[in-house]
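Q: Fold this one first, please.
A: Sequence and structure below.
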Amino acid sequence: MSKTLTPSVTVRDPKGLKFLEVAGAAYNEACLSEAEAQRVKNQSPGLADLIANHIAEHRHEVPPILKLVASAVKVSGSKRFVVDKALLKEANVGWTGSNFNERFLDKVEENVEDATLAIYELRQSAMDVSIRKELGQEREETMLAHFFDLLKKQSKGQEGQDCHLLVNGYVNVAYIRDKNDVLCAVSASWSSGCGCWFVEALSVECPDGWDAGNRFLSRDS
């Protein structure tokens, strides 16, 4: 049985007025003569059906682009966390990109508390702006110490129930602030050929999007 929806947005509301503005602009742009305007008016029932079909097609909520695959993932903090050669070796990071080196090598994080993270799978190709919006501003940022804690737990490319990062060629991404407090997308992918992690950092305004199947980290709520 269909249910009757209570109207929430009408033509008097800003979104309704914008819809009418679009229709009005199209009407004005047509530059109709008196006779043409009369013929268009006479076909208004067909127009009403067309508009109703357009609304029915586009009224539904856009499905989420992220799928939750793990929650309450425990990660350890640190009194003083530094990204140096010793840490990279401990986490078995065999390659770091130049952008990561410039932004994150020797970065210090102090008094980082233990936390829980959530892990999401990207369901369709998307840009950082869309992914961050869905994660939410209050949860999107991850500490570098927490990200590397996960890398260390899978330093040999382990898979299993308690291994939340992908080691199949896809990337694992966390939004982390660099030494200059600029938010970046830090990615880690496992190289089966080299047997180590590859880590890079990209601007969140990079025009290239992320492929479906990649995983994204956030603080758990």
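Q: Good. Now the second chain.
A: Here it is, same layout.
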Amino acid sequence: MTETLPPDDRRYVPTHQWARQVAPGRVEVGITAFAQDALGDVVFADLPKVGAVLVAGEPFMVIESVKTASDVHAPVAGTVVEVNEALRDNPESLNTDPYGAWLVRVEAAPDALATTGLLDSAAYAAAMG
């Protein structure tokens, strides 16, 4: 795991996903460097369909690596409005840039990132020990 704090422009959940507001009511979702380190070399991302409804805290897709397959949990509730199609051909970008290689963009409540349970960068880093 990286020794630096994760980016402070997003919020985190203990299941190692991040959420970043990219426009009013629009949230980008991805996995953290901790999750990427635990997975190892990613070989496949089973992206949801546009229109899928995410429930905060519930799995919404699977990422497969050479070591394992892992559920990805939604950090916020909302409806998928865009998926990162580049991951279909280049899932390993999650290994090289977990904070740049987003998974989905979600139409969410305007205050979705203020939801109880989402951690700021320092709190997430502290929780990871």
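Q: Anything worth noting on the second one?
A: The first strand starts at residue 11 and ends at 13.
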